[in-house]
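Take a look at this chain, tokens included, and explain the fold to me:
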Amino acid sequence: MIPNFTVVKRVIARPTTFLARLGLMASLMAFVVQDDPLSQKPDESRFTPVVVADDLDEPMAFEVLKDGTAYIVERKGAFKKYDPVTKTVDLIATIPVNTKYVSAEGVSREAEEGLMGLSLDPNFDKNHWIYLYYAHPTEKKHLLARWELRDDKLVAGSEKVMLEVVTQREVCCHTGGGMTWDKDGNLFLTVGNNTGNDKAAQTDERPGRSSWDDQGHAGNTMDLRGKILRIHPEPDGTYTVPEGNLYPKGTAKTRPEIYSMGHRNPWRISIDSKTGYVYWGEVGPDANEDTDIGPRGYDELNQARKPGNFGWPWFVGNDQAFPVYDYAANKPLGKKDPKKTINSSPNNTGLTELPPVAPSFIYYPYGISEQFPLIGSGARSATGGPVYHRSDFKNPKRPWPAYYENKWIVTDFSRGWIMAITMNENGDYQSMERVVPSYHPVEPIDMKFGPDGDMYILEYGTNWFRKSDNSRLVRLEYNGGNRKPLVQASASKKGGTVPFQITLLSEGTKDFDGDALKYQWKVAMPGAAARTFATANPMVSFNKAGIYTATLTVTDAKGASNSQSVKIIAGNEPPAVAVNLAGNKTFFFANQPIQYAVSVADKEDGSLATGKIAPARVAMSIDYTSEGFDYAEVIQSQRSVDASTQFAVAKALIKQSDCNVCHQVATKSVGPMYTQIADKYKGDAGALERLVKKVQNGGNGVWGEVSMPAHPAMSVADASTIVNYMLHINDKTFSTLPTEGSFTPVIPKGDNGKGSVLVRAAYTDRGNKTIPAQTSETTLILRSPVVNAYEATLSKGVEEKGQRAGKGIDVITYDKSYIGFKKLDLTGIKQLDFAASVSKRDGFQGGTIEVRLDSPTGELIGETKVGLADPKPANAAPTATEIQNAGGTATTKPASTTATAAAPRPPAPQPKAKLKEVSGFHDVYFVFKNNDAKAIAPLLTLSNIKFSDVEK
């Protein structure tokens, strides 16, 4: 488990004890003197993803030379070269390969196999040898072969088949194909288990079902499938077996090539040049939850410090055991002992007793991992990656910073993140963190450092078993010196009827190094002379209709420059779109209707009000989205009006999830097209609810053999939005809402209610003769009425303490401290409820919360006491109550003279503040006071504030 530790996010104004002051001083001094680069994480702005090669067709693996040349293999057999001089990708050769399997029904289907692996000999510069791992075109076997590559051609007759892996082609999947070398010139090769997927683990011992029994593959010491192999290639094209593999040469019923066994689908492999430890990604089974036939599935990011048995098909994750399944009786049998696994399958031709199961390094399910929560949730396909050592590169141009020294850099094919794994001196796991979170590789299938120090990522693309338009090789460059300016170009409006004026805007442009910047705008249109402006935000006149490009180039003091362009359409006025809400414009209230009306006016088209613009041409939608939704995706990415515009939120959710890993709108991938889903369930009233459950829980058997991964962390609200979009994608007339009406937000079952309601309207005009159409949109975001205290944008004198990742963070307050929120609409807000507490035991004093408008000393519109008793008359009965651990006004009764059992103390009421009637937007401040408190004493802890439109 990751420790449940406390963080302080803002400067601590008042440490509560002398020791705390000392601790704070020590921390600050340590921060000041820390100049060791190992302790300094590089800013994300120093990394730049650069597309090296694109227009690829199912790329599988790659290698890079010192001069930037890249060799890439594709599943269908293409062997290609990227030329860094011409910046082109050329075909070197096509290797005949098999890419199909034939099912028991005689149906030919795509398999994962083909041309699967590529590696260059450590002495490639001298011997020009390359190694390819591929599926024989006609025979049931995978081959490891060596070729000689000269003048960008495979030398005829140079192929040397070094190793054969016997396979089956009745069912899919898992082929491996990762290769790497150790310092002694030994070649490591990952080999998938090549077993059918049935039940949780594949242990079908019935006659004729050996292709479904992984006890005869991954668990068989005489079978090379489901293994990592270690061999030493010899100059004549053969290989020898080095000492130190799992089974010594000559051991009966074993293959000496086996370095490790018990793998399901070991994928990309790397070796730590310092320790010799082996690292790889391991793709696990699909189950979403524990059942009687086995545990839920886990993918693994594994480490082997020595040869070993990693347990499949009997174990996964942290020794989670699968029972052998009796397919004849249709029931699970007993589980194996990880310390002494006995392989008694009739399909086993190797040893009966296997070595103890080696521990998994990192393992994670579909859902959130308690041990490794940063890994996320959803579809998973652990890929792997390299361990970084600066010494591995000779005079690199752009070496990665020392911060990443000794870290394992890994990725996941489905989740599209890059993670840095920190280990201690022994190689034990310590922590992980995202690397360049803003870069989201599209199904990264191979990742390694090139000899020049740059990280390269091969992106397979979104379409399975066919070409994708986003398949590419990317170089992730680190810049340790001067950085180019970040340029943001925009305009005060997108165009207009000529003549008109606009202001070109450079707002958001910055230089990460703090350099002085020079601005130059160039405004050009075909057939007209370009105009230049040397100010950051020039006002520009447009007198001639046409499409203009305004390009902003920004140059820093060291000469580094960057540019961005914005399109200006002259000759067509953009439409004006507005959404008018009755009532509060900041908050939504569950089960209370939102009254809205859309207005659209266009200089050329007319308006909604006059009837010249038909309501059907206006896209109007209101969506509830769960907590954490990035609504900027909707605002920035939607720029056209069609049926899909009604589902801007759904499209953004799909982009942020892993849906596109398996599905496309109208093109075939591994899963069904969205249009197919809509056709299948058309008119099915219960489809929405069933499919939402399927998205969350996973499923199989409806569209083929490939299972749909579970998404247990996806909320019902988000899943419903996505499924609703899919079900209506073929309905071109479908509209979520009319342009005027009422919408009642409902919190889906299981949702915490802390999400947002997005109100969006968009309209595309008809254009003006030869001038293209313009689209305008308006998006309003109504937030949950429960506002977290730590989200305050204004503050003074408070501390924030709690768990990381924004969970459970509270604000600790002191006398005359405050927090504030900008531009909140208080229309209709009658009461505030405070989740506040006072711990007398910890020295908290209690205090008053004042609610003020527009400044900490502005108009007082409400207040409440927390942990303070109301004054009592001098002759009042004695009090036996001490307020602690809760807020509110204390009430007491006279002490009884009769001894009775103490009644349970009821929970203290939540502090409330009734508000004066206020309308419109204001900055709202919460000021904390207690004139009697000691200067360093905390008053109270505040978690959140609920804005309510009713008094209770």
